[in-house]
UniProtKB/TrEMBL annotation:
Protein name per the record: Carbohydrate ABC transporter permease
Record organism: Cohnella suwonensis
Domain ABC transmembrane type-1: 72-262
Principal localisation: membrane
Phylogenetic classification of the source organism: Bacteria, Bacillati, Bacillota, Bacilli, Bacillales
Family: Belongs to the binding-protein-dependent transport system permease family.
PANTHER family for the chain: ABC TRANSPORTER PERMEASE PROTEIN MG189-RELATED-RELATED (PTHR43744), LACTOSE TRANSPORT SYSTEM PERMEASE PROTEIN LACG (PTHR43744:SF3)
Keywords for the protein's UniProt record, in alphabetical order: Cell membrane, Membrane, Transmembrane, Transmembrane helix, Transport
Residue ranges crossing the lipid bilayer per the database entry: 12-36, 77-97, 104-122, 142-162, 183-202, 244-262
The keyword Transmembrane belongs to this UniProt entry's keyword annotation: yes
UniProt membrane topology term: Multi-pass membrane protein
Subcellular location: Cell membrane
């Protein structure tokens, strides 16, 4: 009976997935088609119609006048440095919290939980003053410091992975004379690579899509990222819809390719975390 019910419900499930896919894909298709249309073609055709004559002039204009090369450079620096620091700091913090018993350990864990539930905008003024006091305002150092140290969810995910790694490995290494640092580098961190890859990809996508922090802490034009370059370009050419969609396409493609090529690491990391012993 359950089998028959499942078979009967399949058309409804497929219909639901088709509707969801349509809602997601239609805006993307409209953006892609519009980016390759001329102004005349755009006015005389449907948004979902293919371009009559494919043109790359919009992409060229958006790339050159939108400052996308600077955006790619700054975004690349932020992604690679921030993900590296964030992964190392998160893994080391989780290792210490899991393997060591020390005074105020529960207090520190509670503070991490509190920091996760407190809305970020309630602490923005204090954070801005700290960044300004450190002399990092209007420099790449400001978002690097923020991105490297503000992913508390990552620490808890690392904790779940480390809990599934037997402490007997640590004890065996200590008998052989290994230090805590050596244990972390040679034993713990290699076993955390699936989680590190998963969290690193998610963090990289978040950084590439973030506009708030770069806009607030790096207002200079030569420090624009892809997101802030796009926002600046939109402000300059609000009426040139075909060029705006071309700029959106340029910003969208790197994030989309990053996810498509590395999505297997995300799923393998989740699976590894579920079965690790």
């Amino acid at each position: 009976m359950n089998r028959r019910q499942q078979v009967r419900s399949l058309p409804l499930i497929y219909l639901l997935f088709a509707i969801i896919t349509a809602f997601v894909m239609f805006p993307i298709l409209i953006n892609v088609f519009t980016a390759f249309k001329s102004p005349i073609d755009l006015m005389n055709s449907s948004p979902l119609a293919l371009p009559k004559a494919w043109t790359f002039d919009n992409l060229k204009t958006a790339f050159e006048k939108g400052g996308m090369l600077t955006g790619f450079k700054n975004t690349g620096i932020l992604v690679f440095v921030s993900v590296f620091l964030n992964t190392i700091l998160g893994a080391m913090t989780a290792y210490v919290l899991n393997r060591f018993d020390f005074r105020f350990k529960k207090v520190i864990m509670s503070l991490f939980v509190v920091a996760m539930v407190v809305p970020f905008y309630t602490t923005e003024i204090a954070r801005f003053q700290i960044i300004k006091g450190l002399g990092l305002y209007d420099s790449l150092g400001a978002p690097l410091l923020i991105y490297a140290g503000t992913d508390l969810l990552q620490i808890f995910i690392f904790l779940q992975f480390i809990e599934k790694i037997s402490s007997q490995l640590d004890e065996s290494a200590m008998i052989d004379g290994a230090s805590y640092f050596s244990i972390f580098v040679r034993i713990i961190f290699p076993l955390l690579l699936p989680a590190s890859a998963t969290l690193g990809i998610i963090k990289a996508v978040d950084i590439m899509n973030d506009m708030y922090i770069p806009f607030l802490y790096m207002p200079s034009k030569d420090l624009h990222t892809l997101s802030t370059s796009l926002m600046s370009f939109v402000g300059q050419r609000a009426s040139d819809f075909e060029q705006l969609t071309a700029a959106i396409l340029i910003v969208m493609v790197p994030t989309l390719l990053l996810y498509l090529f590395l999505q297997r690491f995300i799923f393998s990391g989740i699976t590894a975390g579920a079965i690790k012993e």
